[in-house]
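Researcher: Go.
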Amino acid sequence: MKGVETRDWIKDGLKAMAAGLLAVVLAVLNFPLFVLFLLSLVLTPVLGIGLFLLPAVTALIRLRADAARRVAAWHGVAIARPYRPKPAGTAPIGWGRYKQIITDPATWRDFAWLLPGAVAGLVLGILTLALPAYGVEGIVLLPLWIYLAEGWSGYGVNWPIENVGEGFLSIPQGVVFLILGIAVAPYLRRFDAQFARLFLAPTRAAELRLRVDQLTVTRADTVDAQAAELRRIERDLHDGAQARLVSLGMTIGLAEELVDRDPDTARKLMAEARETSSTALVELRHLVRGIHPPVLAERGLDGAVRALALTSRIPTTVDSDVAGRLETPVESAAYFAIAEALTNVQRHSAATFAYVSMHRTGDLLRLEVGDDGRGGADSKRGTGLAGMERRLAAFDGTMSVSSPPGGPTIVTMELPCASSSPRTMLSSGTD
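Model: Structure:
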């Protein structure tokens, strides 16, 4: 375990150093963007040049800010995009677009971040690289220099090295600085990300506006999903149980006509009617399971998911600390999302092993479904993953997919949740 923790610590440090180098490169871009933005404002009264220049410069600044947001996300600092959407029918260039840009508070917050963000990125990025670089110099370069000094001294070349023994003391000092640099690098990058968040994150008003926009979208998706579900139920009833029940009524009616004239045929028709009724009952049960599985109502999310794992064609393990019952809609959304994910594993992954992890922290339910298959899953190309995302979004849930070519695939879902009331728990049949 210690070896794994050490490798993770070193890997995190090396990733932070690479991010520090990227931060230095990106920070340099802030200076020309700052100048271009000022220039586009100044040139607005001059033949209206700014009307054409400002939208292009703003697009570049927002690309740069989005890059900073992505880099911050690597270090666990989430920064939402606060920009107002372009009104429908607005031309990409012109007075309407110009006015929409300069009246968006996020435009000025991006502009205010350019210079401080550049300074912070350069200073913290260089510091991220300087500490481990100084350690490497002490370990490698100075001893090499001393070695060369000894080798060339026989040829009359004098090097500024007075005490070779003291020079080699730089090695343990270099090791200390290298370890310190690798250990501190993630914290320096996180501090830089938090600094960027002060400028680039939405204000309270922008957060409320984004929240309204998100609720509008999720409400529309939920209404569409409910309409599609109703159509599916109606179709299944019409094509399945309803057709069989109509056939059952006709068969019984025919048997009633033949019961006196041809008792043997009537008995055969009644036997056929009994089989039809059994088939219709099975189809109704399957339909009910598709709406709300009885196992979910009886055993809760933990038991229902374990039952799913037992019926999976691929060996599937379940790790769960979800005790008690959750609100019924949340349980149902989580269950069907996991069921869809496991179905995708069986159909598309060519995996030999899968797992489900369910953990609850406070009022947040975290679900994870993974497999050792061939990877390549993409929510933008698959209706199953997109449907899962819409189902979770209706409850303010989120979903992320990590599925590089060659695997593994990991689907992570988070859902706000709360425990059911005691009355709900008792009515659901739990102890």
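Model: Residues 2-200 form one domain.
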